[in-house]
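Lab notebook page, bench 4
Experiment: in silico fold of construct C2
Operator: M.H.
Input chain length: 628 residues
Purpose: comparison with the prior construct
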Amino acid sequence: MSKSITVRVQSAEHGTRRFETKTSETVADFLNKIQHDFELGDLGWNLYQQRNKTGVIRTSRSKKMDSYKVKHGDMLYLMIDDKNSKSRDDLSQKMETENGSVMSELKIGNASSSNDVLDEVDIILEKTDGKIYRKRNEQLCRHGPQGKCLHCVPLEPYDEEFLKSCDPPIKFLSFHSYIRKLTGGIDKGKFVNLENISCKIKSGCKEHPPWPGGICTKCQPNAVTLKRQTYRHVDNIMFENASIADRFLNFWRSTGNQHCGILYGRYEPFKDTPLGIKATITAIYEPPQKSSRNKIELLEDNNDTVNAVAEKLGLKAIGWIFTDLVAECLQQGTVKNFRGKVDSHFLSAEECIMAGHFQNRYPNPCPTNLSSDGHFGSKFVTVIVTGDSNNQIHFEGYQVSNQCMALVRDDCLIPTKDVPELGYVKESSNEQYVPDVFFKDKDNYGNEVTQLARPLPVEYLLVEIPAAFPVEPQFTFRVTEDIKPFVIENREEVGDVQDFNALVQHLRQFAPDKFLDAMSDFHLLIYLAKTEMLPLREKMGMLLEAVKNKDEDMAHHFMKTEEWATVEQMMSAHSPSVPSLQQQSYNGSGAMAAQPQGGTSEPWTCAHCTFINQAGFSTCDMCSLPRQ
């Protein structure tokens, strides 16, 4: 008798998916269904009943699914053939090498597109012993120099007594210490499964009409009980040097408006925490935004080029930063303190939701033997610039918990209108089913009670991370006190415009033999990669490689290219003695207050962007390139 069953198929490249089949279905039809759903195309692959590549299921038009004794709920394992996978990667690499464009050299987009590739810091920490070695205690140890006892034996990285004894105490386990704790038992983590919470109804249930017509225990998501997360994916946030943050804060100093930026840098091992990870910030990209004294609105921004430039430089998006500053005394340079108090908040619900949105965009890659999805949590950090208890500018670091990420991803959490420290879990409607979310609190008598998360204190969702500056500054990009850096993008509000005139002014500060120093500026490299007025996009890979490796010879080779020679000719045509005419004002009669030398009396068309300029302009009002 034919019976309908559900079978799970797990792949290291694509995660786990469910398939509806029948015991009477032919094996060939079932395998065709898998090939179509996983979009395997012409790739070589096999389906196994065991993870160790045993019990292969071979295609057959005569055999049925029950011949392999596949039961309801079984897990099957899809393995891509290594030879075909290798040839596919070689072909992809060959195609990328033939095109020198920065956009084609790099694989860009959200981090979720490469979940199966572990971060370099994770690979390093996986190979690290991680144990805490102690010296021989002269008072308690009674053995020889080669022996070990209870008082000097190495401790595991998750030892609670050691973490509490640190100065300051370590409140959160590092993620790799948490993994070692899960896999350190007798079974060596055989049954460990880092499951990403889902708050959505499972699709494909055929026993009832779709929601709101019906729901059953098979497709209904589980209720969520919020717990304070005991581990964190990043244990420290460090700015390479003070100038990175100082340039970011200049916008607030100039306008009084709040500002937001994306942190670019790298993840590195952090020695002060066992198996810890440090987020090192090397640059801040400022996306298009509208801001006021109490509000920031991020505008639409396609930052694929920024991610491509960063990846070629060995960097990646590691977090976001925003200001929440209110000046108290301009003469003393103090700011108001209204976060972290008893009657205030650390992060508002709206900021928690935004942090969860970013963390979902940049998930943390995880081995498939620990998480079938290929990712778990996120390393993406949140940095707030606000006032501390001494009314000084202070940097605070946070992440939101994995539970918060799930609530945000499935659109279950919304902010409250009047109280920033409280969030609110939606109620189920005809359009969306929302599972019950609970948290534990103490009542007036000190008893622990379970409450429904309507409203919800966002403190349950937060993980604190120290943010600081190093004792000895580091410099991935050049910083010189007597040289003005290239203007930052999207700052037209304060008069900083990234155009050809800004490029000319910047390069004139450097001698010809200091070309690599002149190019060692993150914001300049983004401008060169984005602008379509300059013919550099096809050669940007060479320049980025030179900046990354501080290679003078490669930078000199880039200077000799035809593309850069064209830029130098355009710069030589840009007269250094004529001020920017875009800042010229008009008198009341409509005539220009000052006419430049060499002005004309008729409008002219720019040869670069075809913009029709008014008479008297020697540079284009649209692209800032010279007329000649």
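Observations: The longest helix spans residues 82-98. The first strand starts at residue 4 and ends at 11.
Next step: discuss at group meeting.
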